[in-house]
């Protein structure tokens, strides 16, 4: 049976996923809030605000009509930012048919509730299979035809294996995982470590420093992820180490860019104003630190990022603070 897919969200990743699906001749409808974006996609086959001059599939159709996008869909993929995810789901609830799977592309936690996106799906749309597509996926590289790997995580192994072929596309390889908690948290937590790596780059630290931030950051991600119910092996895979390396090293990484600019002495408000895409790590770090404190998990790198982002801390002082942290066994926190 040919499945009809609707992708909600006209940002870089949502548009990329929609274009990949359409290229496979999957009936795909992209919903975006902006009439200008929809018109550009339908008539020029581009979304320059997010993807420069990358050419989208000629089969992709876009709409501003949410009811049209949702009512006949067999699978819903949501690519809106984490802080507008609930609002989108509330609107979707009026039109979605029973039992339609809902897959999140977001890599953030909801401010206030500290919930993952699949938790919000299960709260607002009980009975709908909830999943996440995540991994080291830089949208512009994928649109340029470069190879990439991602992970589709859902609790139900039968459903996840059914949907895997739908989302796999040529050089875009999709793996499966039933550890939804670990896969979601890997995507959330790596953004915070990427800010720290960017700060080091902005301060002129070298490759050794970046490698240290990545590896010790992975230890922090793993500790908190396991405490919240994730499986250890997940954080050594694409959603943990893979996504972390890509986000901490790529010049296309929004979170690394924010950190780099902070390291160069710029004000966060100024950086945010010039960006028309969300750096999820900035918004998620407060929720992450609240969860870490609640579970007694030491996260010194993430804590320094929190101090810089939310308390106006100095980037140089933050790095000095990390260097003053006493080192012990590699398995120890810190």
Verbal overview:
This protein has 334 residues and is α/β, with parallel strands linked by helices. It has two domains: 5-178, 3-Layer(aba) Sandwich (Rossmann fold), CATH 3.40.50; 183-324, Orthogonal Bundle (N-(1-d-carboxylethyl)-l-norvaline Dehydrogenase, domain 2). It is built from 16 helices and eight strands. The protein has helices at residues 12-23, 35-44, 48-51, 66-71, 85-93, 117-124, 139-143, 157-167, 180-202, 207-227, 238-249, 254-263, 268-274, 280-294, 300-311, 315-324, and strands spanning 5-8, 28-31, 61-63, 75-78, 102-104, 130-134, 148-154, 172-177. It has an eight-stranded mixed β-sheet with strand order 3-2-1-4-5-6-7-8, with helices on both faces. Helix 6 (117-124) links the parallel strand 5 (102-104) and strand 6. Helix 9 runs parallel beside helix 12. The radius of gyration is 19 Å and the shape is globular. The protein starts with a strand and ends in a 10-residue tail after the last helix.
Query: Rg from C-alpha positions?
Result: 19 Å
| Beta-strand content | 5-15%
Average pLDDT metric: 93
Number of strands: 8
List SSEs in N-to-C order: EHEHHEHEHEHEHEHEHHHHHHHH
Q: Helix content range of the residues, please?
A: 40-55%
Tell me the distance between the termini. 52 Å
CATH topology of the largest domain: Rossmann fold
| Strand-pairing-aware structural class | alpha/beta
Shape by Cα distribution? globular
**Lateral arrangement of strands in the main beta sheet:** 3-2-1-4-5-6-7-8
The biggest sheet amounts to: 8 strands, mixed
Looking at this structure, what is the CATH superfamily of the largest domain?
NAD(P)-binding Rossmann-like Domain
How does CATH name the architecture of the largest domain?
A: 3-Layer(aba) Sandwich
Low-pLDDT runs of 5+ residues are none
**Tally of alpha and pi helices:** 16
């Amino acid at each position: 049976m040919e499945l009809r897919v609707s992708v909600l969200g006209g940002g870089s990743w949502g548009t990329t996923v929609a274009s990949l699906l359409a290229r496979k001749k999957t009936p795909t409808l992209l919903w975006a809030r902006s009439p200008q974006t929809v018109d550009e996609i339908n008539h020029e086959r581009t979304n320059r605000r997010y993807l420069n001059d990358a050419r989208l599939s000629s089969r992709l159709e876009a709409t501003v009509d949410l009811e049209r996008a949702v009512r006949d869909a067999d699978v819903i993929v949501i690519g809106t930012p984490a802080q507008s995810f609930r609002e989108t789901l509330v609107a979707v609830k009026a039109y979605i048919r029973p039992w339609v799977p809902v897959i999140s592309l977001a890599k953030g936690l909801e401010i206030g509730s500290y919930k993952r996106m699949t938790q919000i799906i299960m709260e607002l749309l009980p009975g709908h299979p909830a999943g996440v597509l995540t991994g080291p996926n830089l949208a512009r590289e994928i649109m340029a035809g470069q190879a990439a790997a991602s992970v589709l995580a859902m609790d139900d192994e039968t459903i996840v294996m059914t949907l895997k072929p739908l989302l796999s596309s040529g050089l875009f390889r999709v793996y499966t995982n039933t550890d939804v908690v670990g896969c979601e948290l890997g995507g959330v937590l790596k953004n915070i470590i990427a800010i720290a790596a960017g700060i080091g780059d902005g301060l002129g630290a070298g490759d050794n420093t970046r490698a240290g931030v990545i590896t010790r950051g992975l230890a922090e991600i793993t500790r908190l992820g396991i405490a919240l119910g994730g499986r250890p092996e997940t954080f050594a895979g694409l959603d943990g180490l893979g996504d972390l390396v890509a986000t901490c090293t790529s010049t296309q990484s929004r979170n690394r860019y924010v950190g780099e600019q902070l390291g160069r002495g710029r004000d966060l408000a100024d950086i945010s104003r010039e960006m028309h895409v969300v750096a999820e790590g900035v918004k998620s770090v407060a929720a992450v630190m609240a969860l870490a404190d609640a579970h007694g998990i030491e996260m010194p790198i993430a804590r320094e990022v929190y101090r810089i982002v939310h308390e106006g801390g100095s980037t140089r002082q933050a790095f000095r603070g990390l260097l003053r942290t006493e080192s012990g066994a590699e398995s120890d926190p810190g």
